[in-house]
Structures are given as C-alpha cells and as structure tokens.
Write a structure and sequence with these properties.
It is a single chain. This protein has 253 residues and is α/β, with parallel strands linked by helices. It is built from 9 helices and 10 strands. The strands form 2 sheets. It has a 6-stranded mixed β-sheet with strand order 6-7-8-3-9-10, with helices on both faces. It has a 4-stranded antiparallel β-sheet with strand order 2-1-4-5, covered by helices on one side. Helix 5 packs parallel to helix 6. One of its GO terms (cellular component) is plasma membrane.
C-alpha cells in the first residue's frame, strides 16, 4: 500500500501540489493524468523522494515519512523509501557506455553488491520478460526508442521494487514504438506489478490502469476506477479532458 496524505509541494512562492491525498493498493496500476503543468510528474517524483514534499506524509509499505517546512529529511530515511521503488523515465536514462544487459545489472552490482554472475542471470531473466534478449549485448545508441525504454523497464525491475514508477513512459516514442512499451507494461500489470504512471497517453491509461487520478493546477479534480473515469466521469472538467482520446488510435482497449 502507498498512501500520500496532504501532500504539498512548493518551489519558492509557487505551489505545485496542493493538499493531495491518495491511496494506491498493492498489485494495482494507478494513472496520474491531466493537462501539462498539472503536477503529475512532480507528484510521481514525490513518491520516491526525487522531489521532497514541502508538507504532508508518505507511507510506502512499513515506512512512513512526514514533511514540514524547514524540517530536514535524512538521507537514510530517503533511501528506505527510494529502495522500494523502481523508476522509468521519459527519456530512458540508459548509461551510454554500457550494453543493455550491463545497464540492467548496474544497480544490482554497485548498490546491492550482488555477484556479477547472479546479477547477469537476473538481468537476462528481465530482458526476456521485456522481449530484449536478442539485444542484450547491444549499445543503447544502436537501439530504437522503444527498445531503450524496454531495457529501462527491465533495469527498474531488477531489484524487485515494491512499486514501479513510470514518468511519461511513451511520450518520447512514435505510435508504433509506443505500442511495444504498452504491451510490456500491460503484461506487467496482468502479473500484479504495482505501478504508478504519470502520462499524457490516455490510451495507455485506459488500457492498463485500475484507477485514475485526474490532476489540474496541482489539485486532484477527480479520482475513480479507470472504467468510471473513462466512460462516466462526474466532473465536467474531467469529461472535457477525457474526450480528447482519439478512438482511431487505440491500443485495442
């Protein structure tokens, strides 16, 4: 279970997130959707403390942290939360000087101190899961965007995190390459992987999310099951936003 309570985030005088409280059940997929600048990515990055909330509290598993203006959060406390998460970035963030399999192995070897052979076995298992074993020894520069993102997903899954966080996982990809990544994320969802994703891609959200949080101007406008949000939203603002789904370009929803 992930629980965010009364989360506020400020950058100077600008309030980016306003009193956000949501619960994310284990084994579920939650999509954070909304217009640009609404706070989706900032909220996602607050979960693993890449951004430190100004106030509020976060519970991830057995760990709970509270935040207040001027209150310092220790590195040890940050790490206890962060080590339970895996992060998939919009622009892949693969190490260019390492092959695909070395990218997946990196955290296991350098952070968790796994023996290289054990890390290689785990990396190959995950590359198989994302359909990339044939590119295990390829350099990132030789891979398509969709292939790079699949390697990035494998890397994020390597330490068996409690939750996979995806920040716009398809926005840098064309529709064909997006479909590759959507397929992988869909399989992970069907296996019960807990995921939270910030996405502009409503087709992705409608395909694999269990729950949806619609954010605008740093506030939660509406939350609900994906089916409810995408077929019968209650708020007029949500209805207008959801109507932008182009039915001609779906992922077989």
């Amino acid at each position: 279970m992930i629980e965010l309570s009364n989360i506020e985030k400020r950058f100077g005088d600008a309030v980016i997130l306003k009193d956000i409280s949501i619960r994310i059940p284990e084994g579920s997929v939650t999509a954070l959707v909304g217009p640009s600048g609404g706070g989706k990515s900032t909220l996602l990055r607050c979960i693993n403390l890449l951004e430190i909330p100004t106030s509020g509290s976060i519970r991830l598993g057995e760990e709970r942290l509270s935040f207040a203006p001027g209150k310092r959060t220790s590195w040890q406390a940050i790490q206890k939360i962060r080590r339970q998460t895996g992060m998939v970035f919009q622009n892949f963030q693969l190490f260019p000087h390492q092959t695909a399999i070395e990218n997946v192995m990196e955290g296991l070897v350098t952070v968790l101190r796994w023996p290289k052979e054990k890390a290689r076995e785990r990396a190959m298992e995950l590359l198989t899961k994302v359909g990339m074993t044939h590119k295990a020894d390829a350099w990132p520069s030789t891979l398509s965007g969709g292939q790079q993102q699949r390697v990035a997903i494998a890397r994020a899954l390597a330490p068996s995190p409690r939750v996979l966080l995806c920040d716009e996982p398809t926005s840098a990809l064309d529709p064909e390459l997006s479909a590759e990544v959507v397929d992988v994320l869909g399989r992970l969802a069907s296996e019960g992987t807990t995921m939270v994703m910030a996405t502009h891609d409503l087709r992705l959200a409608s395909k694999i999310a269990n729950d949806v949080v619609f954010l605008e101007a740093g506030s939660v406008v509406e939350t609900g099951s994906a089916r409810a949000i995408f077929t019968a939203p209650e708020r007029e603002r949500t209805k207008r936003f959801i109507s932008t789904i182009n039915a001609a370009h779906t992922y077989d929803i």
